[in-house]
C-alpha cells in the first residue's frame, strides 16, 4: 500500500518534461536565427565595404584574367595604401561611368610613358612585362605622355585587344574603386592575382 501514492506523481513528471523540450527547441531555433542574422550582417558589411565579387567580361586582361572569370576586388585597400604600378584595378570607364573596366596600372602621377613598336617605356626605361605574352603584344606606338596628378596610365595585358589609356587617356584616381586581389572561379585559376 505504500507504493500507491508514488504512482500518480510519475505522470506529472512526464507531462512536465514536454514543455522543457519545447523550450529547449525554441531556444536552439532562436540561437540559430540569431547566428544567421549576424552572419548575414557580417557578410553584407564585407561585400559593401571591403571585398566584392565581380565577373570579368572581355578578353583585354588575358592571360592574367580570362573572360567570365570570377574574382574578388578589395574596395578598401586604397584608403590605407597608394595605388601602385602593377596593380590590377577596377574603375569606372571615363567615357561612360555606368560601365566598369579592369586594367593594370602602368604609370602613376608624374611618370613619363611612351610606347615604341609595342615596347612600353616608363621614365625612359623599357618596362619588363612578363604578364604580356608575345602573342598578346601590340606593335603600335603611342606618343609620350606625362601622367597628370591624381591620375594613372592603365593598359590591358592583351595589348592588341584592349581599350585602355591609349584610347581614353589617363584615369583619374576618383574613378578607381577597387584592386583585383583574388580569383575564385574557375577552380584551376583560384589564387592571388599578380
Describe this protein's structure.
The protein has 194 residues and is of the alpha+beta class. The protein has two domains: 52 residues; 137 residues, Umud Fragment, subunit A, CATH 2.10.109. The chain is 25% helix and 32% strand. The protein has two helices and twelve strands; from the N terminus they run αβββββββββαβββ. Strands 1, 2, 3, 4, 9, 10, 11 and 12 form an eight-stranded antiparallel β-sheet that branches. Strand 3 and strand 4 form a beta hairpin. The chain is elongated, with a radius of gyration of 29 Å. The termini are far apart. The model has no long low-confidence stretch (mean pLDDT 89).
Brief synopsis:
This protein has helices at 6-50, 165-168; strands at 51-55, 70-74, 88-93, 96-107, 112-116, 119-122, 125-126, 142-146, 151-155, 171-172, 176-185, 191-192.
- Average residue pLDDT: 89
Give the SSE string: HEEEEEEEEEHEEE
- Supply the CATH architecture of the largest domain: Ribbon
Count of β-strands: 12
- Global Rg: 29 Å
Instruction: State the share of residues found in helices, binned by percent.
Output: 25-40%
Rough shape? elongated
| CATH domain fold name of the largest domain | Umud Fragment, subunit A
Contiguous uncertain segments of 5+ residues: none
What would CATH call the class of the largest domain? Mainly Beta
Question: CATH homologous superfamily of the largest domain, by name?
Answer: Umud Fragment, subunit A
Number of domains: 2
**Main beta sheet: strand number and arrangement?**
8 strands, antiparallel
Number of helices in the DSSP assignment: 2
Span between N and C termini? 87 Å
Class inferred from helices and paired strands: alpha+beta
Strand content: 25-35%
